[in-house]
Every structure is written in C-alpha cells, then in structure tokens.
Amino acid sequence: MTINHLDLFSGIGGFSLALERAVPDRIGWTGYSDIDKYANQVFKRRFPNAEGLGSVTDVQPKDLPERIDLITFGSPCQDFSIAGKRGGISANRSSLFFEAMRIIRAKKPKYFVFENVKGLFSSGGGEDFAIVLREIADSGYDGGWELLNSRHYGVPQNRERIYFVGHLRGECRPKVFPLRKGKQQISKVSEQRIQQDKCHTNTLTARYEAGGAGSYIVENEQKGEGKEIEIADYRNDEGLRIRGDNNSPCLTASHNSEKELSRLPAIVIEREVRPVLTPDRAEKRQNGRRFKENGDDMFTLTAQDKHGVAIDSKIRRLTPVECSRLQGFPDDWNDCCSDSQRYKQMGNAITVNVAEEIFRKLYERT
What we know:
By secondary structure, the chain is α/β, with parallel strands linked by helices.
C-alpha cells in the first residue's frame, strides 16, 4: 500500500527525503506545510508533485485526503532549547506543537514522527514533556521515544535530538526503539548507503579541489590511522601546478580547464583540522567550547551560528555544501537559494540519515 504523507513544519524536506530513501516505491500523496518561502521553494523543487498547504494554522483536515498514513513534524524548538530563552511549551513558537496534534486528532494517521531538541526533556522542570505525553495519550496514541545523536548515523556532527514515534492505540506496536545498540543493529541497507554517501568517517577533512572549486568535507580522505589530510592546490613560482613527482605540467590558456586540472595528481600533506563554532564571533561558545580537538565531530549546526574549521592556524567558515553533507542531504539540495538561506535551512533541518533509519524500521514489516 502506498503511504500518504503529511509533512508539517516541512522546511527543506528532510523527513520527506528520508521517507523516499527508506521506502522509494511506496510514496503516495505528499502534502507539506511551512511559512518560509525559501524553504518552500526548495521543497517544491525537490518534490514537484507535492501539494503546498501554507501555514500549519491554516491547514484544515477536511481539505486533506481522506486517508493520511503518516504525519511528520519538527515544530519550532527555540523555546525548549538550552541555547534559547526557555519559554516552554506555552510560548508562541513551541505552542505550534498543538496545531500538529489538532490535525493528528482529526486525521488519525497510523503513525506520526515528531522531532525536537533534547531541551524538551528539561523544559519547565520536566513538566513540558509531561504535557506533550498527555496530549499524545489524549489524542488516542501510544508511542516511544529516544534521544539520538546524528554522529552515529554517518555524519560527523554532534547533534542530539529527541525522536518520538506515535502509533494509534490498538494497532500493533512498531518495534523502532531502541533504534540500535552498537553499529551491528543498523539496517544493512542503511549501512550500505551510509558507506557510499557519508562525507567522512570520524573527522573533518579539508579538500582544495583542482581549479579552486572550493573546500568540502569529503569521503574517507585518510591515509594512515588517525591522520587528517588535505588535498592542496600547490603551484611553483611560475604559477604552474606542481605534480606529485615535482615535475611542472606545461599548461596553456587553451588547456587550463577544470577538467584538465582535475586529472593532475594532488600533493597530500598532513594538517590539523579542528571544528570551530563560529569564525566571526570569538566569544561565542557551545557547551563551553569554541574549538574542538583535532578529530572531533562538528558542533551542532544551528540557524544562527556560522560554523567553521581551523586548518593549522587558519580559520574558515564551512561551505554550504559541507553543511548539507553534515545533515545527510545531497550537495546541491538547496543550491537555488542564497548562501545565507542555505546555512539557515541546514541549521533548522533534521539529519536525514537518522529519520531514514527510523522509517526503515517502522515499515520493514508492513
């Protein structure tokens, strides 16, 4: 049976992409709701057959398809986050949780998946999470939850988020959580895809591509245990690129193309590469740290911080492509937007790899 999916607070489509990867042949109707026009542009571009529904407050259950099988949402979390003002469940943004539950009550999907920051556990002295659980129970749903870190799912980012899977009371209880205990419990399909798509194993690596195309986190660029390497664009005094054997290639203007340059061997040198919270705000800290040790995972991406890496003594910002890879998205997923919007969108997004593994377990027997 196809899955009719309603994606609330949809952003750039992290949940929808994860579902498409997990059960590619079962996607039916897709609806999405968000108020950010730039995020909606990305969603419509990537899911052209999806139906845009506007703000969640305007979504009327009677206007939706009769059968909705899955509702996903990650309602605004700033009022729960330990980095925010902790306004709690009653604050304007976090109260949108109840708008999602209004639609769930009316449409009675078999499943819903809810994502939020771990600060929800402690917000209001724990009372806010109790309110969430009571609302879910009063809506006719049981469920389970787990605090999951993106770093265990193929991306080098330390990002802890609560994932809650609700199911209609009286239906068979899906065995989703614990999602895994150790690497052996991740699904074979997800493990294979992570090995193919992951941007790194455990550390951040800088790569300077031929032709000055930019700096990216790349797959498994390691030689020797525990060594980070840099692919560097070295030139001699005459401006010619240096080959690995120190012989200078003779390049003319007619042959100085990116295609030609990409075939030249690169010089590999060891570098110390450290994650930096935000290059342009020296006083900013996350969990008391501005820098991490060489080999540590990147700080949690946020919509406010512009993260970076320190390569030896030089600091640079992450590129939008790097941020995409840290969240499990394809490199060009939101390249139709400005860099400032791309940074914001990735900071607000879910990590696709985590949701994909949840959907695989949720639907593996149905």
